[in-house]
Automatic annotation (TrEMBL):
Protein name: DUF922 domain-containing protein
Species name: Hymenobacter lutimineralis
Pfam entry (one): DUF922
Length: 294
C-alpha cells in the first residue's frame, strides 16, 4: 500500500502542474446565478459586445511553472469551461498584459448570439435563417450564396500516447449572402442542403481517416491525399445538386430525402472525433487543414 505521504506529495505535484484559473466577479454580485450553458461563443478583443449583454466575470487562466508549455488552445478550453459553468454564453478575449499573464477574458450573458456569429458549426437542431447570411449580396440573378467548408485539426502529447483528430463542417456567415426573393423558404431550404452536404462529406472524411489512418505516422503520410480526394468529391456533388435543382426545382425534395438518408447511414461518425495511436514517444503532432466545399 502506498504511504499516505506519497499520495499527498503526488496530489500536490499534480496540482502544481495544472494551469491556474482565477475568476473575478463584478461588484455588486448578481442577485441570481445563471444556469450553466451549453454554448459559449468566443470573440477576439477587437469585437464589440452589445450594451444589453450582462457581464458575469473576468476569467484569467495562467500556466503554472510546471505547465508553462501549455498551448493556447488548452488555456482557451479551460476558460470556456469556466464561462459555461458561470452561465455565460459569450467570452471575449482580452489583450494580455504581459507574456506570462496567460489568457484573460470577460464572460457575458447575451440574450442572443446571432449578432456575434461569424461562422456556424453544423448541428441537426441549428438550421440556417436569412439573418445568418451576413455577406454582401451578389449581383445578377443569384438569390443566395452559401460559403461552407470542412476543416480538421489534430493534436497530441507524447505522454498520452494518443492523438485526437477533430473534424468540423462550418458555415461562413461573413461570406454567405441571401437576397429577398419570391420564394424565400425554398431558397433557404436550398442553401441549407448545401450545408447538409458539407456535413455529409465531413462524416465521409471521418470514416475514411478511421479506416486508413489509425496511427499518427499513417495520418502524416495520408491525410492530405485523402482530404484532397474527398473535397473534390464534395464539390462535384454540390455542383450536381445545383444543376439538377436549377433545371427542375421539384428535385429539391428528392435531394433533401436522399441526403437525410445518407446522413443517417453515417450517424456513427456524427461526432467526427477520432483517436489515433502515437507510435513514437517523442512525436509531437499538430495539424490544421481546411477546405471549401461550396
Amino acid at each position: 500500500m502506498m504511504p499516505l505521504r506519497t499520495w499527498i506529495g503526488l496530489s500536490l505535484a499534480l496540482a502544481g502542474c495544472a494551469p491556474q484559473v482565477a475568476v473575478q466577479r463584478p461588484e455588486p454580485l448578481p442577485a441570481s446565478c445563471p444556469a450553466p450553458t451549453q454554448t459559449v461563443l468566443v470573440l477576439v478583443a477587437s469585437e464589440p459586445v452589445e450594451a444589453s449583454a450582462r457581464e458575469l466575470a473576468c476569467i484569467q487562466v495562467r500556466p503554472s511553472l510546471l505547465s508553462f508549455g501549455t498551448d493556447s488552445v488548452a488555456l482557451l478550453q479551460l476558460a470556456t469551461t469556466q464561462a459555461r459553468q458561470l452561465g455565460a454564453n459569450l467570452l471575449r478575449l482580452e489583450k494580455p498584459t504581459s507574456p506570462t499573464a496567460g489568457l484573460q477574458a470577460r464572460a457575458f450573458q447575451a440574450t442572443s448570439l446571432r449578432p456575434y456569429e461569424q461562422e456556424i458549426l453544423w448541428h441537426p437542431a441549428r438550421r440556417l435563417t436569412p439573418a445568418d447570411f451576413k455577406g454582401r449580396a451578389r449581383g445578377g440573378r443569384c438569390e443566395a450564396a452559401t460559403h461552407s467548408g470542412i476543416r480538421y485539426r489534430c493534436r497530441s502529447q507524447s505522454w498520452q500516447r494518443t492523438a485526437r483528430l477533430t473534424i468540423e463542417a462550418y458555415f461562413d456567415c461573413r461570406h454567405s449572402s441571401f437576397h429577398p426573393s419570391r420564394t424565400p423558404g425554398q431558397t433557404l431550404a436550398h442553401e441549407q442542403l448545401h450545408f447538409d452536404l458539407t456535413e455529409l462529406y465531413a462524416r465521409h472524411l471521418a470514416q475514411r481517416l478511421q479506416a486508413e489512418a489509425t496511427t499518427t505516422p499513417e495520418l502524416t503520410r495520408r491525410h492530405r491525399r485523402i482530404f484532397r480526394q474527398l473535397m473534390a468529391e464534395a464539390n462535384a456533388r454540390q455542383d450536381q445538386f445545383d444543376r439538377e435543382v436549377y433545371a427542375n426545382r421539384i428535385r429539391l425534395l428528392f435531394w433533401r430525402r436522399q441526403v437525410a438518408r445518407e446522413l443517417q447511414v453515417l450517424q456513427p461518425y456524427a461526432d467526427k472525433q477520432l483517436t489515433l495511436q502515437v507510435r513514437d514517444a517523442h512525436e509531437q503532432l499538430s495539424a490544421y487543414v481546411r477546405g471549401r466545399a461550396h
